[in-house]
Amino acid sequence: MSSTRFPQRRRTSAGEERRRQIVEATIRLLARHGPAGTAFTSIASEAALSSPGLISYHFTDKTDLMSQVVEHILTRLESSLAARVAEAGGDPVAQLRAYLAELVRYQDTHRDEVAAVWRLLATGAAEGLAGRGRTTALPPTLLTDILRDGQQRGVFRVFDVAVMAQALHCSAEGYRERFLTDGHADADAFTAELTELFIRATAP
């Protein structure tokens, strides 16, 4: 009897594309219906899969799938933030402006992703991610690094970096409340007010 009766799941380009297809279909369903609307049969239909069993081939269970959904979204966000901050050069004030602008812009242009993450967090469906530190409740290290660098250079006043980072990040995340309650929310206006507030708050 062959020992390869149950072949191992290898990560191929086709397999990665299928995983991405499933994750993005799940994001759309989460945004519209929340976790209750993400049965494998619904995901299979949204992703145009021939069978819900294909989801089980790529993900251990629903918890694994939801973990990958949040990982996918936050990794994309963090990469976008890092790129925008890098473009700002080495000035901490310019980097802070870039960070705030990009966090608001990303939410404005990726509304399904934002809604998906917050629906998961609101229902407790993302609790399994706590041990991996994957939660939007904590600002990324990138922001605390900007603030510490600014203090060391004397362009930011002395303050508790952890507290200020939390205030900055959570305030910018608050843009989701604007577009959820106002479909015509102005991301540029929100960014301008937020930036003015925190540039003043961090100034020496």
TrEMBL record:
Keyword annotations: DNA-binding, Transcription, Transcription regulation
Chaperone found in the keyword field: no
A Pfam family this chain is assigned to: TetR_C_24
Residue ranges of DNA binding: 40-59
Occurrences of domain HTH tetR-type (ranges): 16-77
GO molecular function ontology, one term from the record: DNA-binding transcription factor activity
Source superkingdom: Bacteria
InterPro entries, per the entry: Homeodomain-like_sf (IPR009057), HTH-type_TetR-like_transc_reg (IPR050109), HTH_TetR (IPR001647), KstR2_TetR_C (IPR041490), Tet_transcr_reg_TetR-rel_C_sf (IPR036271)
Protein name (Swiss-Prot/TrEMBL): TetR/AcrR family transcriptional regulator
Organism encoding this protein: Desertihabitans brevis
Record lineage: Bacteria, Bacillati, Actinomycetota, Actinomycetes, Propionibacteriales
